[in-house]
Design a protein that fits this description.
CATH class: Alpha Beta
Radius of gyration: 17 Å
Strand order of the largest sheet: 3-2-1-4-5-6-9
Number of strands: 9
Order of helices and strands: EHEHEHEHEHEEHHEHE
Number of domains: 1
Oligomer: single chain
Helix content: 40-55%
CATH architecture: 3-Layer(aba) Sandwich
CATH topology: Rossmann fold
Number of helices: 8
CATH superfamily: NAD(P)-binding Rossmann-like Domain
Largest sheet: 7 strands, parallel
Mean pLDDT: 87
Strand content: 15-25%
Shape: globular
Distance between the termini: 45 Å
């Protein structure tokens, strides 16, 4: 019951790792706001949470759209009166050679992978600053610290998320605000199923994985939940890697 009486927004939480994160927070008694671009998917997760006796609401939100983000925050305040935890999550990463990327594709990646952190954090911060303490966890990637071919825009924006996390953490640490990030490597979800079923791709990815196995969504969820808990009350600006990239010699 570590999140009893806490309210958490988890963006992009209708599937994969972030669905697991929402469920992890909910089963520890947080009231959770489920959001993504498809309301029907959010509603299904809310029903799943409510069936276990936990509290949740669904809000449709495109995190690159300032009006949608404002509505997400306003709806949360209207229903729960406060926001204790924000989990910033959204990602897109076209796999193309750098010279093949169009201006529209680059702008789209920046809007989805970076702009959302600014928008979501900016909209919740005025409410959180009225409270005694709060937590923000933004989702970066191992590729924000490492490189990967044909992923220049993804790597760049995820590195920016790490640096933004550090800057905000320093700015607000003295006001009982914990701002950290999580950087996952390749995790087994429905979104990665196609890659995992390709033996050649799977082998390449495992060669960069210390545990020689792919992570599960619940393992990332527990890492996020730790940073969102009071157990992490003295942790600031950390980017927790789950799991680390292993070099090939």
């Amino acid at each position: 019951m570590k999140f009893k009486n806490k309210v958490a927004i988890v963006t992009g939480s209708s599937r994969g790792i972030w669905k697991a994160t929402a469920l992890e927070l909910a089963k520890n008694w947080a009231s959770v706001v489920i959001s993504s671009t498809k309301l029907e998917n959010c509603t299904k997760i809310v029903k799943e949470i409510e069936d276990f006796g936990w509290k949740a609401i669904a809000v449709k939100c495109d995190v690159s759209n300032s009006k949608d983000v404002k509505n997400l925050v306003d709806t949360t305040i209207k229903n729960f009166w406060k926001i204790d935890i924000l989990v910033n999550n959204a990602w897109i990463g076209p796999t193309k050679a750098f010279e093949e990327l169009t201006e529209e594709e680059r702008d789209f990646v920046i809007n989805i992978n970076l702009k959302w952190v600014f928008l979501c954090t900016n909209n919740v911060i005025k409410y959180m600053l009225k409270q005694k303490s709060w937590k923000i966890i933004s989702i970066s990637s191992i590729l924000g610290k490492r490189w990967f071919t044909h992923a220049s825009s993804y790597c760049t924006t995820k590195a920016a998320v790490i640096n933004l996390t550090r800057s905000l953490a320093i700015e607000y640490a003295s006001r009982n605000i914990n701002i950290n990030a999580v950087a996952p490597w390749f995790i087994r979800t429905d979104m990665t199923k196609e890659s995992l079923e390709n033996d050649e791709v799977s082998k390449i990815l495992l060669n960069h994985t210390p545990a020689w196995r792919f992570g599960e969504a619940e393992e990332i969820a527990k890492a996020v939940a730790f940073l969102a808990s009071d157990d992490a009350s003295y942790i600031h600006w950390e980017t927790l890697t789950v799991d680390w990239w292993r070099s090939i010699n």
